[in-house]
Amino acid sequence: MTRPPVSAAPLTAARHASSAAGDKPAGRVVVITSGKGGVGKTTVTASMGYGLAMRGFRTCLIDFDIGLRNLDLHLGCERRVIFDFIHVIEKNCRLNQALIKDKRLERLSLLAASQTRDKEALTEDGVEEVLDELKTQFDFILCDSPAGIESGARHAMYFADDAILVTNPEISSCRDSDKMIGFIASKSLRAKEEREPVKQRLLINRYDANRVKSDDCLSDIEEMLGLPVCGVIPESAHVLTSSNMGQPVITAEGEKAAVA
User: Fold this and answer.
1) Which domains are present in the chain?
2) Dmax over Cα atoms in the chain, in whole Å?
């Protein structure tokens, strides 16, 4: 079964639709999440953000994994982190002081998670205030969520306009994703305010056609979870190499995972 590569089109189309409808121009908040850890959320977030910035969109990445930050490593800017997300929430610095601009792409910025605080330092009001300010400066805010529904994940999902659920083509990963779908549909701010639901899509990561037993695997996942698959990223050893070098895999010329 052939699938199109991952595309930013659904996200950009949603943003253009909001503008066409006469809504106040504002960045869209996109949460990248999953039901279990280790499926590749941070890798996806880094590459998706890089891809949007390459297309000319002002893009901010936020690491919501308080105490266990990784996104700075994937972007190769770990030595440039001075202020972080919690510093901004607690008014210990201004937002622009904490934002780290990517040296390769001017339109890409990172708001790193704290490495020394715990997840309880996140507050609903604090997160909302930061996101509201970011939406005036950026076209897209990509939230790299911890797995499951702990505090960091709940705050990341609560304010989302769009959700990308990263899953691997295995039953345990899909089952955990099902829990997240229900949480986003019922517990988000959009659900609470009875607005248009969060647009949820699946992204299949680490897909290996040689290991999948059936050509109908992707259709089965769509049917099981009730969401469309927006893209498929193939298994690739180059992903680890790129991450260790602090370079999003999308920058790897000719690599299948980068093309996806």
Assistant:
1) 26-207+214-259 (3.40.50.300)
2) 53
